[in-house]
Write a structure and sequence with these properties.
The complex is a heterodimer. By secondary structure, chain A is mainly alpha-helical. Helix content of chain A is 68%, strand content 0%. Classes of the chains: A mainly alpha, B mainly alpha.
Chain lengths: 489, 443
């Protein structure tokens, strides 16, 4: 809490305090100690059944909680329907009790253990205020709660229900927007139209389930809560499993990528960074978000074909034989072969296959030229070269970003697509670039003796001269090779 | 499995359902239905048909049509039919007829797909509907006879009000639960017969796979039936919404599950692409290992781990500086084999989510009886299966020659005193024998 601005701290404290007062007062009223609106027996049943269902739902998904917590968007709201139902069934003094139980129930979205205590307290306070106000609106309009009388269709009750939903959503929105804009120092309007606007519709749908629950309760009793909430609880449970599976999926992919990188000591973290740089290029050239996601996969997997190259060849420090060159040159094609059947990769497969092509047609494996090279491949080529230059390699140390930019600019039009080069440079100027060269600490620093430049071992003197001019990355080792073979044929 | 096995398994179930349908249809046709009743029946049949069209594949490959099943259940459980006094509910024959007609109409678009599966599903639904309706009626009659359950009983004991809806709801819920259990048992029986899974394992698998979707279906069915006297047909579209949400999340989960498997399968090719192992080796080993595991009574959850482990069992070879000639680990020295296994386990363990799979891969080269015939009790069954199947595939490969298969099996049998688990080898021999025409001498 220390790192929050003073105003935000005061605000969080005030909301929590008001919530606490409401809950205490509601408890006194409901128990019959203050006023004349004590809860009836059936209303206490509702308090207990609703609280138990929330607890049960949390219990079911608690083993999967961690993966859900990482991505709140994929949690299915059970809090909202229960909140709405408790307002309709229990009125302004009963509903805050359910909300309080809900926000302190273990495993609730609002009581996530990963949240700091003051955020949890704020969530609880917010729930109590929402429920209290919405309850006042409902009983003010209709004079009684739903549990007292069987529901009958009509304009007035329907409007009252809509008013309850509106009150809940608006109060929730206002309280949330204020806290976000105070802590993150953004304009409240931006928050309102950004994140809040997106969640309004799903919240409305979940609220409808709350209405249904309360209406069915009015003629069938507590079992309606079980029946209405069961499909939601199952959906929530399956979504949690989905989230866990997706996390598992990403972890598996990452560890397989690491397997590629353990084969080639000097490329640790390379795939991850190429992926990051590719995404920067994609975003700054205005690519659609779903394509950016595919591009991220392409960046991560671009060297997966190296799994098919014998470790001895990849780690060899000295001169490579023609066969060994050929083995390395096959990695894009092998990458394609490995990923070919993965439907979700789509365009990424072409990107993997052609990321060593050059704009001037002197790359491999096909020698494609200019626009013939798929867009993803042109992007990855730039990202690949940029990362290789700015990190330590077996034959040289890391270069500065400025030097790398100069090199990229010099090679645009011959090796790289100028559009992509400029897109990367622009993106780095805006977002910066975190090199995190893991190798600098863990691997031996390159020394003069351990710099067996591939170019210098080459038989072709022209290739050697060109190599000195061109980008010296692991790609250009191969580019050098390609140039020799290109000219030899 | 073969078509014959399918027919044998589903035969009795389909026959029973067919009889029920014939009786139901004849009785319905001879009944005089009013215009109104026909309209309501048509609405439910349409709902079931739409649900049937929106069929989904659950994670793990099972088929389900949640909306259709919920609609069928709701129709079987409708409390008031033709006025409060007329009937305890929808006549059994009519329930069967509406469910059958709806399901068949909904199956038309899929009629060209695998017919046998749809027939089984339909048969199950008809039987389950009958069970639910029968139980509910029986309980309704019981409730009618017990006047004390009525909230407004007059002083002289004659019933005045209707049965409290809470009791009706309880009766519906009970009927729905029993019907779901019957459905799971039927599904387990069918699967057990067609895939040669022991019945107990099949029941556990079905229970695990269906508990989520079945409870959502049952709740929705009861909810529609319960609110029908107040909402009438509106109950159908309104309470379909939560179930659609459930269906949506199941679909997403099934998609990611399939993608995961697809990715592991693809990545298992890396050893082949790199020339470390023979083409198709990982897939053949995984297919055969899963068949062996299934027949040895492993649960679906364990079979999934076995499949992943079998697909990735050679991944440790990637860390070798040079490929083993021919990629056959069986030919490598025991020390090398162990090293490959450990390296592979290490790579998989890094994922952090596949620890069980990593354990299996790590121990895949360990002998069954390491010290003078003493059993290694901690060696996972999955590892023993992979060891035997891997050795078999190293010896046979993609070859279809019976001689080679025979020789390989013979070699495995000879190794059962130390290397291989005799039970695994026996099951393997059974499977290979079934797939080919020869019989293994002395078996």
């Amino acid at each position: 809490m220390q790192d929050l601005p003073v105003l935000a701290r005061l605000y969080v404290g005030a909301v929590t305090a008001i919530g606490a007062v409401i809950v205490t007062f509601s408890l006194l009223v409901s128990a019959g100690m203050v006023g004349r609106e004590a809860l009836t027996g059936e209303q206490w049943t509702a308090v207990i059944v609703l609280s138990l269902l929330v607890l049960l739902s949390n219990l079911i998904i608690s083993p999967l909680r961690q993966s859900v917590a990482k991505d709140q968007r994929i949690d299915i709201g059970i809090d909202m329907p229960v909140g709405i139902a408790s307002v309709l069934l229990l009125g302004p003094f009963g509903a805050p009790i359910v909300m309080a139980v809900m926000s302190f129930a273990p495993g609730s979205a609002s009581n996530d253990r990963q949240l700091p205590w003051f955020k949890r307290a704020f969530n609880g306070g917010m729930g109590a205020i929402q429920a209290f106000l919405a309850g006042l609106v409902y009983t003010g309009l209709l004079g009684q709660t739903l549990i007292d009388d069987q529901f009958e269709f009509g304009v007035k009750p329907m409007l009252a229900m809509l008013a309850v939903i509106a009150t809940m959503e608006i109060v929730n929105g206002l309280l949330m927007v204020t806290v976000i804009s105070l802590t993150e120092r953004v304009s409240p309007l931006r928050v309102w139209f950004g994140t809040m606007g997106e969640s309004a519709f799903p919240l409305f749908i979940y609220s409808i389930f709350g209405l249904l629950l309360a209406v069915v309760w009015s003629f069938a009793g507590w079992i309606s809560a079980v029946l209405v909430l069961a499909p939601l609880m199952v959906a929530r449970w399956v979504f949690a499993q989905f989230a866990a599976r997706q996390a598992a999926y990403e972890a598996t992919m990452r560890s397989l990528i690491k397997a590629v990188e353990t084969k080639d000591l000097y490329t640790r973290g390379h795939s991850e960074r190429v992926s990051r740089a590719s995404v920067l290029i994609g975003r700054s050239s205005g690519m659609r978000e779903d394509r950016v996601t595919t591009l991220r996969y392409a960046g991560t997997l671009h060297d997966v074909g190296k799994l098919g190259v014998p470790t001895r060849v990849l780690q060899k420090a000295g001169k490579l034989t023609d066969e060994e060159y050929e083995a390395i040159q096959q990695h894009p094609a092998r990458g394609r072969e490995i990923t070919r059947e993965l439907e979700f990769l789509g365009e990424a497969i072409e990107g993997i296959h052609f990321h060593h092509e050059r704009i001037d047609g002197r790359g491999y494996p096909m020698g494609l030229k200019g626009e013939e090279i798929p867009e993803f491949a042109r992007i990855i080529a730039v990202a690949d070269a940029f990362d290789s230059m700015t990190t330590t390699r077996s034959y040289r140390g890391a270069r500065s970003i400025e030097d790398a930019v100069i090199e990229l600019r010099r090679c645009k039009g011959s090796q790289f697509d100028p559009v992509m080069v400029e897109a990367l440079i622009e993106a780095i100027e805006v977002h910066g670039w975190d090199v995190t060269d893991t190798l600098a600490e863990t691997a031996p620093q390159p020394s003069e003796t351990s710099m067996p430049s591939l170019g210098s071992d080459d038989d072709d003197p022209t290739a050697r001269a060109r190599l000195a001019l061109h980008v010296p990355d692991d790609a250009s080792e191969l580019d050098g090779i390609n140039e020799t073979s290109g000219e030899g044929s | 499995m073969s078509r014959d096995a399918d027919v044998r398994a589903s035969g009795p179930v389909v026959l029973l359902a067919g009889l029920v349908v014939i009786v139901g249809l004849t009785r319905t046709v001879t009944d005089n239905l009013t215009h109104d009743v026909l309209l309501y029946c048509a609405a439910f049949a349409l709902f079931i048909a739409i649900g049937e069209v929106m069929r989904l594949t659950l994670p793990g490959g099972r088929q389900s049509a949640p909306l259709a099943s919920a609609g069928a259940l709701a129709f079987a459980l409708l409390p008031e039919w033709g006025g409060p006094q007329a009937n305890p509910g929808v006549p059994l024959a009519l329930a069967v007829t509406v469910v059958t007609v709806g399901s068949i109409v909904g199956s038309v678009p899929r009629a060209f797909a695998r017919r046998s599966v749809l027939v089984e599903e339909l048969a199950r639904r008809v039987i389950v509907t009958l069970v639910a309706a029968f139980l509910f009626h029986a309980m309704q009659v019981l409730l009618e006879d017990n006047s004390f359950l009525r909230p407004e009983t007059l002083g002289d004991g004659t019933p005045a009000g209707l049965i409290d809806p809470k009791w009706t709801a309880a009766a519906m819920a009970l009927a729905a639960i029993v019907a779901s259990v019957v459905d799971a048992l039927l599904a387990a029986g069918l699967r057990s017969a067609s895939d040669r899974v022991p019945f107990g394992t099949a029941v556990l698998d079905e229970a695990r796979a269906l508990v989520g979707i079945a409870s959502a279906i049952a709740a929705t069915g009861v909810l529609i039936a319960l609110s029908y006297p107040i909402m009438y047909l509106w109950a159908l579209p309104i309470f379909a919404v939560p179930l659609l949400l459930t269906q949506f999340s199941f679909r997403r989960y099934a998609t990611i599950q399939a993608t995961y498997l697809q990715t592991i399968r693809s990545l298992s090719k890396v050893t082949e692409v790199g020339g470390y192992t023979e083409t198709g080796h990982s897939r053949r080993v995984s297919r055969l290992a899963v068949t062996v595991g299934r027949e040895m009574g492993m649960s679906q959850r364990d079979l999934d781990d076995l499949e992943y482990a079998a697909l990735m069992h050679d991944i440790g070879q990637l860390s070798l500086t040079d490929p083993i000639p021919g990629g056959a680990t069986t030919m490598a020295s025991p020390l090398d084999q162990r090293q490959i296994a450990e390296l592979g386990g290490g790579i998989i363990r890094q994922a952090g989510v596949l620890d069980k799979v990593a354990d299996i891969v790590e121990r895949q080269s360990d002998p069954y009886r390491p010290h003078r015939g003493q059993l290694d009790t901690e060696l996972p069954l999955e590892s023993r299966i992979i060891k035997a199947v891997n050795a078999y595939d190293d010896l046979v490969g993609a070859s279809m020659e019976s001689d080679r298969k025979l020789q390989a099996l013979e070699r495995l049998s000879l190794g059962t005193d130390r290397e291989f688990d005799p039970e695994v080898v026996d099951t393997l021999v059974d499977i290979i024998e079934r797939e080919s025409v020869f019989t293994f001498p002395g078996h």
